[in-house]
Write a structure and sequence with these properties.
The structure holds two protein chains of two kinds.
Chain A (H helix, E strand, L loop, with lengths): L6 H16 L7 H12 L9 H31 L6 H7 L16
Helix pairs in contact in A: 1-2, 1-3
Chain B lengths: L1 E9 L2 E8 L27 E5 L5 E5 L2 E2 L9 E2 L2 H12 L11 H11 L6 H13 L11 H22 L16 H12 L3 H14 L2 H8 L5 H8 L1 H10 L3 H26 L12
Antiparallel strand pairs in B: 1-2, 3-4, 4-5, 4-6
């Protein structure tokens, strides 16, 4: 199967997601310090194929996928499914009618 | 005193559980965070932080209050990475709390509360049942393009799994599905029993999302990425999209939701079953 993206791309991707999520103060968040810490720790390895490094890379790739797809899902939801119901006035306006006005208020209102 | 009926969308369907509110003298410290079906909960905290308890388990603090599960238990996670990920989920909420976006929190709650009282053996049995109707074993006969696609994409994964676990799993296009020999089931049974309860909770979630135990195990074994596993699970849909076109508000929406849930499940499994040991070699000058 295709190889994973390089650690640099994954790291930058995660940081972009964190910035999109939390705004300009993302550098002070818990996740930022933990991610940077983990990437730095796993950078240098003695073996050519270091299992822990590959595992960490896969985990970070998974987390990037989680953040990115949650954000996209939320964006699509707001774009297409986020409008909710129309109010009675709008519904009446769709067919060209207007709701009647009762000066004394409707019977069941207080 | 009951606060109200809690409707929390659980990973295994809709579970209605009743959330008790604490007696009034403890109100300041614990409150039901998941209640009210009609109005939406507003974000009531400024900061999210984590802390480590005496037993080494990590807890989440919203402002000063400790997070609790819907069952009333204290929310504890065994490792720091998972705690930070859950804290980030809570921190990502703006204005209102959208619980359906907090997949990791939901998974942790399920693992901690175990509301349906599932044992490890029950979970393993239900996972093995999935093997008989696994997505990548269940092939079609026509249209030919789809048959080709299934052969090219699913066969390598099947062979990799067969080699990895030393089992035989066939693929079939009959309506009954492939015949799985008992030896295969025993091998998988043995493999799955080595997982902890938390990991099995996550695994069940991923299997129910991807509709395939082989794809889930391939992802947990780090052979597939989340995007690849989701693509393989949705192979027929992708084929039809290629033929008839993509509908963003349905196809992309479903794909991103599936990816988010699968990624959360996969991360949950990996974090619940890893032992963090970093051997630092000292540079010898």
């Amino acid at each position: 199967m295709a190889g994973l993206a390089s650690p640099l791309r994954v790291c930058r991707g995660i940081l972009k997601e964190l910035r999109a999520m939390q705004g300009p103060s993302y550098k002070r968040s818990l996740a930022y310090s933990y991610i940077m810490d983990q990437f730095r720790k796993n950078k240098v390895t003695g073996e050519r194929y270091c299992r822990a490094q590959q595992e960490a890379l896969h985990a970070s790739h998974t987390y990037l996928c989680l953040l990115a797809s949650s954000r996209n899902h939320q964006a699509l939801h707001n774009l297409y499914h986020g409008k909710g119901e129309r109010s009675p006035e709008e519904v009446a306006g769709l067919v060209g009618l207007r709701l009647p006005t009762q000066p004394g208020g409707k019977g069941w209102e207080k | 005193m009951f606060r109200g009926i809690v409707q929390l969308r659980n990973s295994f369907g809709n579970v209605i559980s009743v959330c008790k509110s604490c007696p009034s003298n403890q109100y300041s410290r614990c409150l039901s965070k998941y209640s009210t079906a009609s109005t939406e909960r507003k974000r009531f905290y400024q900061d999210v932080s984590i802390s480590q308890g005496d037993d080494g388990l990590y807890e989440i603090n919203l402002d000063r209050r400790k997070l609790k599960t819907p069952g009333g238990k204290l929310f504890t996670v065994p490792n720091e990475a998972l705690a930070i990920a859950v804290a980030t989920e809570w921190d990502a909420q703006r204005e209102t709390l959208k619980f359906y976006t907090m997949h990791l929190t939901t998974l942790c709650n399920t693992a901690l509360d175990n509301p349906t009282q599932r044992s490890k053996q029950q979970m393993i049995n239900s996972a093995l049942k999935f093997l008989e109707t696994d997505t990548i074993c269940y092939r079609v006969d026509e249209p030919l393009g789809l048959v080709e696609l299934q052969k090219n994409e699913w066969d390598p994964v099947l062979h990799w799994m067969e080699n990895r676990y030393n089992v035989t799993i066939g693929s079939s296009s009959s309506i009954l599905g492939p015949e799985i020999p008992q030896a295969t089931k025993d091998t998988f049974q043995q493999h799955l029993s080595s997982y902890s309860l938390w990991s099995l909770t996550g695994l069940e979630f991923v299997i129910s999302q991807l509709k395939s135990i082989l794809l889930s195990l391939g992802m947990v074994d780090r052979y597939l990425t989340v995007e690849q596993a989701v693509l393989l699970s949705r192979l027929e849909e992708e084929y039809q999209i290629g033929r008839w076109g993509n509908v963003e508000w349905a196809h992309d929406y479903d794909m991103y939701e599936l990816r988010a849930r699968t990624a959360a499940g996969a991360l949950f499994i990996q974090l619940s079953s890893e032992n963090l040991t970093v051997k630092h070699k000292i540079m010898q000058d």
